[in-house]
């Protein structure tokens, strides 16, 4: 009896729990000189399929839509290497469920490997953490997860514009817990994973003033499409 109720709760949560998307990446190269700082805003909107699974319950693949907004703080470690941290919020929707705004954070690094005339080759690594909790018809849901993005590729630079892109790897892992009390307390656990791991992206960065620029990029990863953008000020 208890196992049956737990299974019913897990199936319900699979149709209601918040999830996540792909965050902004930008050019796969260092964009700050040694000792330079940057502050910016990164935004992303995505739709993708994610797999939810739990012991004794068939896995469920659900489409989720996510909006994320980060404050990005960057620093040039050397001329060809920068690091950054991000703090922000994520808003998630699944079917009729609106998860609201939840705290999100992360960090990353970019490096330039080769510079030749107007084309540079480099790479980036970034990781973001998300967490959330909600109560759905008396069921308390807690979820913690992270996503890793690794990209390499070229950046073409003209006078006031840069065009960039390349392949990238996307990894997602997370877990969650549900708790409820009817005539007795029960609880269950579930895992979260992405359906696709490899994708490609293309974007452009345009200077709008001295040490200021805007970005917009599109990404495709098997079962997902993503539109992201950002604006940054260097000093």
Give keywords.
235 residues; mainly beta; Lipocalin; 11-stranded antiparallel beta sheet; 1 helix; 11 strands; 6% helix; 74% strand; disordered N terminus
Question: Can you describe what's shown?
Answer:
Strands 1, 2, 3, 4, 5, 6, 7, 8, 9, 10 and 11 form an eleven-stranded antiparallel sheet that branches. The protein is elongated, with a radius of gyration of 20 Å. It has a single domain, classed as Beta Barrel (Lipocalin), CATH 2.40.128. The chain has one helix and eleven strands. The protein is mainly β and 235 residues long. Mean pLDDT is 80; it is low at 1-20. The termini are far apart. A hairpin with a 4-residue loop joins β10 (212-220) and β11 (225-234).
CATH top level label: Mainly Beta
Order of helices and strands: HEEEEEEEEEEE
Instruction: Predict the CATH topology.
Output: Lipocalin
Shape: elongated
Average pLDDT score: 80
Radius of gyration: 20 Å
Range of helix content: under 10%
Secondary structure class reads mainly beta
Amino- and carboxy-terminal Cα gap = 63 Å
Number of E-state strands: 11
Structure described in brief:
With 235 residues, this protein is mainly beta.
């Amino acid at each position: 009896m208890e196992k049956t109720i737990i299974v019913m709760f897990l199936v319900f949560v699979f149709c209601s729990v918040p999830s996540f998307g792909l965050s902004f990446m930008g050019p796969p190269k260092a964009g700050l000189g040694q000792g330079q700082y940057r502050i910016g805003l990164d935004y992303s909107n995505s739709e993708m399929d994610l797999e939810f699974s739990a012991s004794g319950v068939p896995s469920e693949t659900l489409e989720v839509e996510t909006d994320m907004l980060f404050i990005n703080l960057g620093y040039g470690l050397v001329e060809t290497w920068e690091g950054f941290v991000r703090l922000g919020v994520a808003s998630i929707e699944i079917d009729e469920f609106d998860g609201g705004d939840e705290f999100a954070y992360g960090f990353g690094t970019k490096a330039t490997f080769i510079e030749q005339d107007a084309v540079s080759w480099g790479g980036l690594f970034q990781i973001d953490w998300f967490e959330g909790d909600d109560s759905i018809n008396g069921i308390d849901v807690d979820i913690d997860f992270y996503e890793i993005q690794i990209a390499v590729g070229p950046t073409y630079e003209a006078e006031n514009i840069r065009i960039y892109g390349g392949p990238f790897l996307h990894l997602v892992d997370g877990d969650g817990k549900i708790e409820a009390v009817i005539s007795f307390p029960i609880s269950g656990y579930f895992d979260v994973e992405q359906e696709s791991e490899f994708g490609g992206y293309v974007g452009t960065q345009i200077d709008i003033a001295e040490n200021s620029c805007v970005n917009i990029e599109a990404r495709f990863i098997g079962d997902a499409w993503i539109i992201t953008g950002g604006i940054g000020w260097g000093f």
